[in-house]
Each structure stands twice: as structure tokens, then as C-alpha cells.
Design goal:
With 221 residues, this protein is α/β, with parallel strands linked by helices. Helices cover 29% and strands 18% of the residues. The protein is built from six helices and eleven strands. It has a four-stranded parallel beta sheet with strand order 3-2-7-10. The protein is globular.
């Protein structure tokens, strides 16, 4: 079976349970392999509502050995509606038994450069390949322009190879100040899942499909 799969669902209602099951299966695989923790990177957008509904509904869910980080984050207070951590805290974390100290959040009180450096240090507790954190699963979204994390088309951060977490103070999409995983972290993950919903993503997804250079398996539900 190809290591790359494209799975198409009729709607988010069918996508959500499958995504939650994938995360749980990956968690079980990681822990069965003898790893002390399952590491998961979360993104915002439609993923918040999908996971908040479907993860707590998984039978026998046990998140006591999960460590959660964020693929990117807006440098805003946690009660700001733009805060990805804040959204997950209100909608998901209170419903699952993940230890509070296993949720790796930014320090939004710091200037964006210092915030990125501080968050990179926090991610050091994730198992690493050299100096790069290795997550078991990264759940990534994609904007209509093709951006993922806070890595935007033609932005200099696409060329970043030294930092694992980078600051961005000129985001084309507000708010302007963010921190983001860089491509070395994305590429080091054991499993990367891009989740795209809504018709506005269709054009860029068609471009991505044409650019795939390796064989991939297509499944349509």
C-alpha cells in the first residue's frame, strides 16, 4: 500500500469519525511500540470542531499518555477567539483525560521572537531526531492559498532550515504575529494528515494532486 493516501468524503460528518479513529489508532500503535507517550500536533480552523465532537466519542478513549502541541499559534491572549489553544481548551480538553502539563502552549505574553524561542524549548520534551522534534501525528489544515501551519506561499519562512519553531510578524492572514512549526518539523513527523473541508479549498487541492510525484492511493467514500 502506498504511504500517501488521498481520501475523499461526502461531507465533514463522514470525515470526523474516521479522523478521530485514525488518531486513536496511531496513539495505540505508538504506545504498543514501547514509546512512553503519544505526541500529537494540532491545528486550528475546522479541525477544532471536528475533533472536539468526535474524539470524546471514541470508545475507551484514554489520553493520559498523550502530549499535545500546536502546529502554529497566534500570539494573542488565550481568551481571544483567534487563539487555537483557547478554542481547544474550551471545546475539547475539558472532555478528555489529558494531563494539563502535557498540553504544550505558547507564552503569549512574550514578544513574537522570544515566544518562538520559548516554544521551541517546550517542544524539546517531544522525542527528537537530532535537534528536530518528531511527532507521531501532525494534523494540518490548508488555506485556499495553499498555506499550512503559518507557512504562506512565497514567504521566506518556507526556506527556514535551522529553526524548529519560527516567528512570523507579517502574516498575510490576520492576526499578523504568530509562531509556526517549520518544514523540517513537518517532514520529520511519523504521520502527517492534511484535512481540508469546504469548496474554497478545491482549486488548490487540484494543484496539489497534480504536483504529487509519488504514487498515491485514492479512496472515495
Amino acid at each position: 500500500m502506498s504511504s500517501r493516501r488521498v481520501v475523499v468524503f461526502p461531507s465533514s460528518a463522514e470525515l470526523g469519525p474516521v479522523l478521530a479513529r485514525l488518531v486513536c489508532d496511531r496513539a495505540q500503535t505508538a504506545l504498543n511500540a514501547g514509546r512512553s507517550q503519544f505526541t500529537l500536533g494540532l491545528s486550528g480552523g475546522s479541525l477544532v470542531s471536528l475533533l472536539s465532537k468526535e474524539l470524546p466519542a471514541q470508545p475507551g478513549l484514554d489520553c493520559s499518555k498523550w502530549v499535545v502541541g500546536f502546529c502554529d499559534e497566534r500570539v494573542v491572549p488565550f481568551d481571544d477567539p483567534e487563539s487555537t489553544f483557547g478554542l481547544y481548551k474550551n471545546q475539547l480538553f475539558s472532555k478528555i483525560n489529558i494531563p494539563e502539563n502535557s498540553i504544550l502552549a505558547i507564552d503569549h505574553t512574550l514578544p513574537v521572537e522570544e515566544c518562538a524561542e520559548d516554544y521551541a524549548r517546550k517542544l524539546n520534551q517531544v522525542s527528537s531526531n537530532g535537534d528536530v522534534p518528531v511527532f507521531d501525528v501532525l494534523l494540518l489544515g490548508m488555506g485556499p492559498d495553499g498555506h499550512t501551519c503559518s507557512l504562506f506561499p512565497n514567504h521566506p519562512l518556507l526556506q527556514e532550515t535551522q529553526k524548529t519553531i519560527a516567528p512570523i510578524s507579517d502574516s498575510p492572514k490576520p492576526p499578523p504575529c504568530r509562531v509556526t512549526m517549520t518544514l523540517p518539523v513537518v517532514n520529520a513527523a511519523r504521520c502527517v494528515v492534511f484535512v481540508s473541508t469546504g469548496g474554497s479549498k478545491a482549486p488548490v487541492l487540484k494543484v496539489c494532486e497534480r504536483l504529487l510525484t509519488a504514487d498515491f492511493e485514492l479512496t472515495v467514500f
